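Before the break, one more example. Copy the sequence into your notebook; we will annotate it together after we see the structure.
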Amino acid sequence: MPMNDLAPLRYFRSAYETGTFSAAARLNEVRQPSVSAAIARLEAHYGGPLFHRGAAGLVPTDLGRELYQMAGVVLNSLNQMEDRLARRVRPVLRLYCFADVLTSPFEQGLRAITRDAEGAVLQFTDDAALADVVLCAEDCAPQSMPFRSLWEEGYGVALPVGHALSREAELSLADLAEVSMISRPYCPSADLFGGVLQDPGPAKALPVAAKAMHDAQLLDLVAAGLGVALVPMSHGRASQRIVVRPLRDAKDVRRRMGIAHRRTSFAAGAADRLASALTGQGARGAGQITEGSERL
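Here is what the structure looks like once it is written out:
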């Protein structure tokens, strides 16, 4: 029976690119059993498994890889036809930004994407699996997405402008003995910081004045004078109301920043444009954002 219905191919491509049936279902706004059933129909039609199921997600078989390449041609042609009929509707680029990442270091690249001749409309999503491009640290990049490193950076202490400690070029744990902290429980390095702050420096763990939900909120709390926080050095340029000073005791805590993207030509092209704008000649590269950051 010919596979005239294109929905199974769309579900298959989404599963191939996201690595799970559940993410493919969310991406297509259907229930997971619909995706599973569609994949089963394709496997029955083409006479073999399209994926191996494992703990790390879906791994395409040789048949699955071949179908992905061929289905991409069909679906891309259909999408191009739909674009022409819709009078070249601007494509939507779905973005995800982790809670410990600010968009400001990426703003030059984001502007470049929207200013292209066929500039995309940026749409943020609350699910990384549904995003075309993810702004993240390497350790947080979705397993199914290629990751491109842009810069590496250390951490420092965020202080409100005018704070007594802001006059120091570098701080130590002893300098923080009398301050309250604003914690970042969502930060992948939170456990490392916990160990640093309870090391033999202060006689007791530093008191926590507040717990933020994301770093934009955290910087507002620091600027309001509620406490200080351990943050990536690049955050020092995000607000004129705070300063970030290196912390000698946390020099080994670092992260590699960049972008991850779905395995589609559209997402890869957007990632190329974003990375080029951030690292190209004449650009204010991500690695030049602040002291403590190293361009890769």
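The longest strand covers residues 147-160. The chain has eight helices and twelve strands. Try to locate both features in your own notes.
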